[in-house]
Amino acid sequence: KHEEDIPAVVSALKQQIDLKTISVMTWEELIPMLAQMIEFQNGMIFIVVMVILAIVTAGILNTMLMSVTERVPEFGLMMAMGTPPSHVIALVMLEGTLIALTGSIVGVGIGVSTTVITGHYGLDLSWFTSALSNLLIGSTVYPRVDTTNLGIFVGIIIGGTILVSWIHAWRAARLSPITAMRQFG
After folding, report:
1. At the N or C end, where does the chain have fewer CB atoms within 10 A?
2. Contact, 139 vs 132, CB < 8 A?
3. CA distance 165 to 179
4. For the purposes of burial, counting CB atoms within 10 Å of the CB of 157, is it exposed (0-12), middle (13-18) or buried (19 or more)?
């Protein structure tokens, strides 16, 4: 049932049967070309996901930049009334963290729900995979949630958002109240 169990199952089978009449092989040994294709595909998916993460991070950077830039006079007024710079930093950081957490919760919820549903019923890719019929594999795939990658990507998004928020919060806290109040959004 699990990919991690394959070596143990293969070694157990090799001990239980006569290897002179029957050979026991993993699917990677049986169809090495498919194993290489899957490894290449996983590498390409990783590259695409990293590009998407970079684009998302740039979007978050832009959102936080615009949020801070448009509110410079507001921050100046707050600091002129005695708000310490640490509270300005906390305000911007809280906003960025809430954006990251809300987006992550909604995105993970939609993604996991979609993956669980399609994993249960399967995705028929016969229109796209007719060339793979010679490799003795089916055209229906059953996706599953990979919690390790999910955690890594959510961590990158939340960590990147917090970092970007901190940079903009630090810049907002360093503003001179008089100069900030004179700026127009």
Report:
1. N
2. yes
3. 22
4. buried
Q: Which two tokens stand for residue 151?
A: 């955690």
* Spatial CA neighbour of 96 closest among 151, 160, 152, 173: 160
Contacts of 154 (CB under 8 A, 6+ apart): 104, 108
pLDDT means over runs of 10, the chain (185 residues): 82 84 85 88 90 86 86 88 92 90 93 94 76 63 88 89 88 85 69
CB 104 within 8 A of CB 157: yes
CA distance 105 to 157: 11
Please give the backbone phi and psi of residue 9, each rounded to the nearest 5 degrees, phi first: -65, -45
**Model-wide pTM > 0.70:** no
Q: Which of 149, 75, 65 is closest to 99 using CA atoms?
A: 65
| CB-CB contact of 159 with 58 (8 Å) | no
Helix (H) or strand (E) holding 140: strand 140-141
CA distance 40 to 46: 10
